[in-house]
Amino acid sequence: MFNLSLVTTRSGVCLHIPVRVKFGSRIASISCGTDYTLALTEDGSIYAWGVGSYGNLGTGLICDQYEPALVQMPENVPCRQVAAGTKHSMALSTQGDMFSWGHGGHGRLGHGACDAAMRPTKISLSEVAEGSEAKFKFVAVGEAHSASIDSLGQVWCWGAGSFGRCGHGEETDFLVPQVVASMIGKSCSRVALGVCHSLALTRGRIWSWGGFLYTGHCEDDDIETARELDDEELKNHSIVEIAAGRFHTLALSSTG
């Protein structure tokens, strides 16, 4: 794994070059937040480094970390996915349980309150009757909201509800995970979150909701429930992957 280092040439030109990050374990995947990074090793351990002003690194401290630091998971549970955002982070265990930590504003951590969490804390679904036995296969974080996909392919979303970004038909905050009703039965495989918009991928098609022009629907009004992206450029393509930046979206087709 490599970071970028800034060097200056003899002519005074600044260049970013890759510099190897030293690890004792092999890395399975990484997730880059606004100004910090999470790395998942092949044995399911999580490491974090970068800006940690909100507890988003999960080390128990509110400070920056200049080298990879081990994130201590409850009972040392191994993980299979990590997701880094702006002020908060999530991890998905190999057993399908969700953990979150960092800034708790707007309920983005899904713990039923707006309190911060300095270390990974399991998201309990006991307050949500239909989700008490749910297991999950994918997680995503935005700037102030979060989402996941359960084993049935249902999309869950919570956190800041302004701009309709949670997809629940109203613009209030949601302190615990809620199923996105308009996506029930769609068998989703991926979700991606920007600042004000959300995306879901199902059977090669993109669904989106949220605010401004980031949803791809070319409407000025907020879209508060999921809507399929019916675009002429996409009709003849099967989409296999999606990604959301803060204010833009990327999609990868089956033809590359």
Automatic annotation (TrEMBL):
PROSITE patterns: RCC1_2, RCC1_3. Pfam families: WD40_RLD. Signal peptide: none annotated. Gene3D superfamilies: Regulator of chromosome condensation 1/beta-lactamase-inhibitor protein II (2.130.10.30). The keyword Ribonucleoprotein does not apply. Keywords: Receptor, Repeat. RCC repeats lie at residues 44-95, 96-152, 153-204, 204-255. The keyword Cell inner membrane does not apply. Residues 16-251 form the RCC1-like domain. This is Ultraviolet-B receptor UVR8 (Protein UV-B RESISTANCE 8) (RCC1 domain-containing protein UVR8). It comes from Cladocopium goreaui.
